[in-house]
From TrEMBL:
Keywords: Hydrolase. This is HAD family hydrolase. GO terms for molecular function: hydrolase activity. Gene3D superfamilies: HAD superfamily/HAD-like. Pfam families: Hydrolase (PF00702). It comes from Paenibacillus ginsengarvi. InterPro entries: HAD-like_sf, HAD-SF_hydro_IA, HAD_sf, S-2-haloacid_dehalogenase.
Amino acid sequence: MTHVKAVLFDLFETLISEFADGARKVDRANRNDAARLGLTHEVYRKEWGARSVKRSTGAFADYFAAMRDLLGGQNAAVPEQVLRELYEERVLEKKAAFADIRPDVFELLERLKRGGVKLALVSNCTEEEVVSWPDCGLAAYFDEVLFSYEVRLAKPDPSIYKLACERLGVAPGECVFIGDGGSDELNGAKAAGIRAYQAVWQLPPSMRERDSGYPQLVTPLAALDVV
Ligand SMILES: [Mg+2]
């Protein structure tokens, strides 16, 4: 342990994973959300993706508001029952990511806490994606939790990292950020003045080989060498 006062962690594909043995824990192959909504797959994916930033920064009140906006834009009817089912399926799909968390992730957090390092979670997400957070066992380790939809800021906006630092009472230069690199989060951390490391322990080999430009941590406990 050195001079690092705080670690900011990403959540998905860093502390938890939607994948196991190279496949999604919840198979989506046979789902056809678009057809259930009366839309083509192409239109649905495009419109869902187009609302990604607004969804993750809380611009919509919730999943249902986002979906009503999407359907309204297509002059499509709003099938309330289908929306409720899709919401529940999303909750369950994301819940799976919180199961079977690696023991060495817990060990890392335990050792950081014992070393007096403050911890913040900085996650781009929507409400239905993190329903399982309070009960997953990780929450107890964190001094601050910044869900993008709650703070209305999302990575890679430097403001969300700076807000995390403010809440922890530390300067960006006293922190490190650790994440798999999704949402351009490593560049965002750097722009906020925070040293960034790429967590690759959940990533498939093909993605590890892609150079992020940031030092890689191959296992959770390797983080102890840079903190
Ligand atoms: Mg991630």
